[in-house]
Amino acid sequence: MAIILLGFMGAGKTTVSQHIKRPFYDMDTIIEEKIGMSISDFFAQEGEAAFRKIESETLEELLQLEGDIVISTGGGVVISERNRDLLRQNRKYNVLLAASFEVLYERIKEDKVFQRPLFLNNSKEDFHGIYERRMMLYEGLSDLVINTDNRTPEEVARIIQCI
């Protein structure tokens, strides 16, 4: 069974998954290995449609793996209808890591390692609109919602391991 971590950028998917005692697959890392460059560079060169195609193929491949695993998705995985269909097939094990917009905004702003194009190229108001639209999609696909605003990654991981 695959536990799939969903959530907006900055919610803690990658960080939390490293504290869960199961084999862990980070979709963004896998995709970057496949394409041989950063996702933001690929986005700039090939466009979003090409990225979403690779993202869907990667999600489908990971969902076919055997055993108890954890998959950390990218924040935009829910944009694609194909991905939403794949996620619906994994019902009972889709976990939304949620945080308030202000907390996420500050986490992303302070993150010097991951420079996110959506954050850099949008006003705070436009970015909030993206957050709102995606949250509706995440919530419709999730079986468990964990607010990460005031929890440590270890606390969130312990909740997930109870599934």
From TrEMBL:
Native source organism of the sequence: Streptococcus cuniculi
Binding site for ATP: G10, A11, G12, K13, T14, T15, R116, R151
Principal localisation: cytoplasm
GO cellular component: cytosol
Record-stated family: Belongs to the shikimate kinase family.
Subunit text: Monomer.
GO biological process: amino acid biosynthetic process; aromatic amino acid family biosynthetic process; chorismate biosynthetic process
Protein's UniProt name: Shikimate kinase
Recorded catalytic activity of this chain's protein: shikimate + ATP = 3-phosphoshikimate + ADP + H(+)
GO molecular function, one term: ATP binding
Protein's pathway: Metabolic intermediate biosynthesis; chorismate biosynthesis; chorismate from D-erythrose 4-phosphate and phosphoenolpyruvate: step 5/7
Gene3D superfamilies according to UniProt: P-loop containing nucleotide triphosphate hydrolases (3.40.50.300)
Enzyme class: transferase
Function: Catalyzes the specific phosphorylation of the 3-hydroxyl group of shikimic acid using ATP as a cosubstrate.
Binding-site list for substrate: D28, R52, G75, R134
Enzyme Commission numbers on file: 2.7.1.71
Subcellular location field: Cytoplasm
Cofactor: Mg(2+)
Residues involved in Mg(2+) binding: T14
Cofactor note: Binds 1 Mg(2+) ion per subunit.
One protein family per Pfam: SKI
Alphabetically ordered keywords of this record: Amino-acid biosynthesis, Aromatic amino acid biosynthesis, ATP-binding, Cytoplasm, Kinase, Magnesium, Metal-binding, Nucleotide-binding, Transferase
